[in-house]
Amino acid sequence: MEREPRDLRRAAFGKPLYQGMVAAVRRRAVRRRATEAVTVTAAVAALIFAAVPALGGVSGGRGPRAAAGAALAHPVIAYVAVAGPGTVVPIRTATNRPLPPIKVGRGADFIAITPDGKTAYVANGNPGTVTPIRTATNIALHSIKTGRTPVAIAITPDGKTVYVVNFDSGTVTPIRTATNTALRPIKTGLRPNGIAITPDGKTAYVANNGSGTVTPIRTATNTALRPIKTGPHPNALAITPDGTTVYVTNDNRSGTVTPIRTASNTALPPVKTGYATGEIAITPDGKTVYAVNGGTVNFTKATVTPIRTATNTALPSIKVRGSAESIAITPDGKTAYVTEGVVGVGGVVTPIRTATNTALPSITTGTSGLGAIAITPDGKTAYAADLLPGEVVPIRTATNTALRPIKTGVGAEAIAITR
Q1: Averaged pLDDT, 253-265
Q2: Whole-model pTM?
Q3: Contact (CB, 8 A) for 207 and 214
Q4: How many CA atoms lie within 13 A of 172 on its CB side?
Q5: Contact assessment for residue 89 and residue 408, using Cβ atoms and an 8 Å cutoff
Q6: Which of 125, 231, 302, 351 is 20 to 30 A from 401, comparing alpha carbons?
Q7: Burial class (CB within 10 angstroms; exposed 0-12, middle 13-18, buried 19+) of 290
């Protein structure tokens, strides 16, 4: 993986801020296409340079928005990891007001919350640490040393163990939540990039982007099992609600998704998807997988491919507008929301009706559209992170309208919402 040009950090943000964003940009490059990381990173750099003039007024350059409405009905908090300053910004979803930022570490670009909602764990890519945050007080605890470049986190359903994927170390670090202590790292394959844990909590599956494999880990003993061969450059994983199948995206120009039977840890024939397959999500009923095909570095050929889990067959791909990035599905399973970057427009979110697999009119959100998206437990609001200029945009799912953006800081990269 090539690193970004040195002059970019000086010209655009200055050294400290740029270094804080390195992990976020690198992870996006890997998600897009590991075999052409230099080209992809250049595309991201172009977006950064394009947005620099707007940094002085981060809400500039936008079209009309719906005004922020009355308070929402659910007392939940959205936690936004902000890579630039190395902070986490809590947002009260009842009022869409941000609380004071919480200092964590540089390159904060992934966040996960324990099932009981008491602790958020933030991966800090630059120092190679994870910072726990007590959600009752929004106080950061002492950071925990992991491997180099932590890029993904998964937590067991019982909340007892956090598993941290270390991209540059080729390991996974288990952390005991009772004491916030790191256990012995578990060796995986090259450049591990994603992780998912079965609903029974017995097995974690790790996608090794550099090895073309998935490593199962027995959580009872923290031992790695025999790696499972997938397609080239596996990226993201999702597991069906019944725990029977893991779906792994393989990003290699014309992408595929590899189903893996968890009972035997055997890979089934790959399912053809689209160009640069990255993120993936499964409907709550487990019947349909949605694979996001990011498209080319020229922001073309982006689609979303639905896959029927009963037969592992791909349905016709759904065309989206620009460079597709992330996806989230409402709790009722009726709508999938896809974040994109569109040349000449900026960030957009495209809703997809799952009943018909049709794209609805896209919602303009921000400048870059390179961030994550998360949906509140009641399904009423989606929050889309805009990496540049550093905002989170709430979207009313009932009307698919964007509300007033919430400022977070440059590098709004990941979102997790308490339940």
Answers
A1: 93
A2: 0.86
A3: yes
A4: 31
A5: yes
A6: 302
A7: buried
CA-closest candidate to residue 89, choices 296, 361, 386: 386
Q: Is the pLDDT of residue 415 over 50?
A: yes
What is the overall mean pLDDT for the chain? 84
Tell whether omega for the bond before 98 is within 30 degrees of 0, i.e. cis. no
Distance CA 185, CA 179 (A): 17
- The candidate with the shortest Cα–Cα distance to 156, out of 186, 197, 119, is 197
Q: According to the model, what pLDDT value does residue 70 have? A: 36
Nearest residue to 331 (alpha-carbon basis) of 366, 285, 368, 371: 285
Q: Helix, strand, or coil here: 23?
A: helix
Cβ density class 172-197: b for 16+ within 10 Å, e for less: bbbbebeebebeebbebbebbbbbbb
CA-closest candidate to residue 410, choices 30, 5, 22: 22
CA 296 to chain centre: 19
| pLDDT surpassing 50 at residue 263 | yes
